[in-house]
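P.,

For your records, the input lines for the assembly:
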Amino acid sequence: MTVNPMTAQQVTQKIVNNEPLFILDVRNEDAFQDWKIEGKKVTYLNIPYFDLLDGVEEILDQLPADREILVVCAKEGSSVMVAEMLSEEGKDVFYLQGGMKSWSEYLEPVKVADLNNGGELFQFVRIGKGCLSYMVVSNGEAAIIDATRMIDIYTSFAEGKGAKIIHAFDTHLHADHISGGRKLARQTGAAYWLPPKDAGEVTYSYVPLEDNEIVKVGNEEIIIHALYTPGHTIGSTSFVIDDQYLLSGDILFIDSIGRPDLAGKAEDWVQDLRETLYSRYKELSENLIVLPAHFMSMDELNSDGTIAAKLGTLISNNHGLNVKNDAEFRRIVTENLPPQPNAYQEIRKTNMGIISPDEEQQREMEIGPNRCAVR
Amino acid sequence: MNIKTNETLDAKGLACPMPIVKTKKTMKNLENGQVLKIEATDKGSTADMKAWAEKTGHQYLGTTEENDVLSHYIRKDGNEDSQEKKHPQVVDNETVQSLDKDSVILDVRESAEYAFDHIPGAKSIPLGELDERISEIDGTKNIYVICRTGSRSDMAAQKLAAKGYEHVYNVVPGMSGWSGETTKSE
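Structure tokens returned:
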């Protein structure tokens, strides 16, 4: 029977549309436990490929007949091998093209909104890693916020819109993924903006992003208003776009809040995080649509594929915005932390320009989920 | 680190699943207790070798990296535990935690096992080399013979006793149950 490739984009479509999918993940158990393709209608079997070298007969009765079967491994090779063995046993199967490596690097562009003066706002969903980046396009100009290192996706998207990228912003110095902001700026001539308080150790020049800075993109009415919101990092900055959208970086997520410990300063930054979330954000209009830099679970995905919610909704529903006393808040964000992201110290150093790993090394460093949040 | 092995498999430049496929095949030709060195460039091979060895009953010893080449060391399962131990003088691991200067620890595991994990100061003579190197052992000392589970050390202890060594003790269970300090070879 047949073996066909399925691309990360096709898998993304199935997840967004809540289509059933059966995944036979043939990576080793630790890798699977740590990080896998997730979706509301996804079911799994994890059997390492090296347990199947002598044949797949033993697992045939565990494969469903009523839905598509996708074999997944780290880089594709083992999934092709297992898919071919299944095909010889009479199964129709797919393998994930490029493996989890492609899954980690795939970005799905989703339109968030038309802006008031003819511009558009897009969210780029890095579904495999839970990272979100943004593009504002207006009248032949584009700005990108929290770019991933897969910059070709942004440049060709902007080109398709007939826009020139003139600004690349990072809301903070990232610890879970390698920023593409600097590379994007070098390639396109855009300005690279970084909050100076996060840039103490960086080895390159950048445009300092200060509180209350207003940056125009295209038509002058589309403004990006920087708002100093420390807590996840000391320099963390949020943006308000078009008076409607709050890009909250790694401070506030849909169902969780940013963790303050990834630069080794949890104790120092707890109070900043508390003030940002409980004072500064609560002064803003509850009608702002929050657009975070991460999501943690497919439950946060809206039916249109975006990850977005009204600030007012989060103020009532997000557990992290509803902790009554300071001591309890401090305990939650310093004691209750998930494991740190893979290679986060090396990632920080890369984003500071202190080390320059090659592409393959960057890929290895980014393996796994983002883990920037605390619930 | 200078590690003796019984066979080397070149899996450089091969992508997953080939390093494991070839390792499995090569392993069939080795005898129990022998050590295979696998050279690979696929970064994912370390976790897979480890997991595969554990599942199949082989002993994953460790991995070194030099110039982007990973060297994995795996010892084919010896089924040592089933062998009956015959040397009469047996001590437990705790005894070896505090030895005086008149004692030596003799580690008779393969050089690759010793290289990745051994008790500081232990002398390495693999069981297979014991006959030819027996003169390196000082007969005036108390000799504590150790291996992974106590079986190879039992055989080594018998050999030493047969050659006239008087104060020979077999350490049981040995390195598999060792909770004290260990070190790696340089």
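Two observations worth noting. The longest strand of chain A covers residues 131-138. Chain A has two domains: 3-103, 107-374.

Regards
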